[in-house]
Input
Amino acid sequence: MDNEVEPVAADDTLMIVNRSKKYWVNKQSICSSIPYLGKMFSSGILEPNDKKVVLDFDERAFDMIIRHANLDGVIIEMDCVIKLYNLADHLMIENELLEDCSSYFYSNFSLENLEVVIPQVSKESKLFNVAALETFICRHFLKISNSAAFLDYSVDTIEYICKLNLVISSEYQVIQAITKWIGANDTRKIHLIRLLKCVRWCFYNYDLLSFSQDELMKSADLTSLVCTPDKCNCNCVYNRSNRKCFVVIYELDSSNVNIKILNNKFIMLFSDNFELNESMSLNILHDEHVCDVFFDSGSKGIRFDWNSKKYRWHDFSIYSKCYYTQLQKCISKNVEEKWSHLRTDANTKQNLSPLPYCHEMAILENKENLMLIGKIKKGRFIYTVPLPTKLSKYALKEDKARSFIATVLSNVIYIMNRNFEFIEFNLDDGSFKKSKPFDGDKFNFDDLALTSHQSRDSKVILVDKSTRDIFTFDVSSGKWWSIGRINRRSSKNDEKSTKLLAFTSALLSIDHIKPRSKRKLISLDQ
Output
């Protein structure tokens, strides 16, 4: 803009000096548009007759503020939107500018612009703070590290990400992300040791001999990095690979639920009541004390706030606007439908074109990807990975209309249908198995839930929500076991906990979970 704007009246001209830039503006008009400046005069910081004010704000953001005050066009861009919002808020501007900044940021944030967002955020950021950013990165690290954008990040960004309290199941996943990034460009090999220092070797559960065939890893002196809990020479704050847990949700009444967190041994760590709040945001970017849990083969989801003890149900009625699709768009803006059959006989075609009509679908999270499973005619199943950002036909059924339930563990999809057939589809070798383990039992299919951890586990869990009975399938032996019944009440305060809505696996950050006991919760093994 032209910084030497001719004022309407010379006596009412104010010169604003902001770092290296100068602006000549109408004093009355600018004080009306930017209340902060008016306060400087009315509070005595500046004298009424002062013709000059010296400021020290981000130059680009302040220049946009002046443009906006002069009714000039302002183009909001991702590399300045948080700075602009923060400055507008600091200058006490309360108009459409704040709303435009917020709408633009939350509608356009993606992994492609992560690097321009990182330097803008701080603990005090109003629009989006560093805690919320790191919450997003930590929860979705595996998806981020599997994205195309990840390979284009600078070494500083990779180091920043890998040092966080990531939600992972193994430190090996961090090593994989590092070597994948380095492998994308030979000149990056010089950063190997620097990035391997981000690994929390105290909690690395594999033998170092596993790297004996890896030429890149063999070039590093791992003995200088590796440590143990009793001899720690790195910043191993706590075990970030121990995030697996189970979430149990009881309905108390139409607007209250009880949520329990169990560790992998089904020992309860947390139990509290949460109240419905329909005004909670369902954006994929949220505060660090907010958590999402999905269940019933991805057909239902709940967001709850550890601090306020509020919750809200996710809405999957419109595919293009639901949580899953928004997350996939953030990771990769355009993902096409690429369907394949889950083979049940030798004559089944692998690839599908055109797409047959899907009567029913389920969305599952498998380590670094979201996947979609569809049921087509003759009881056959198809799948696509990753989740398409647009879908031609979609039907995520409610409980009473479901004809199958599903979960995924490592690279095997497990499905149970209304005939109580249990089907195992191995995505690696294309093999499948069918069995009918509960042929003689009297289940109500609509009361069943199938769940499992995403990886590094050996069991699939079937829950009868009406009786609260739990059965586990051992993937190694191929045998089913009855392991007991979920306790309905855990304290006198749980008297109303009668209807079991969900029993599902989850990966949760424990940083904001307050355990039932007074001791600090530092591990999900407690």
Q: What stands out?
A: The radius of gyration is 27 Å.
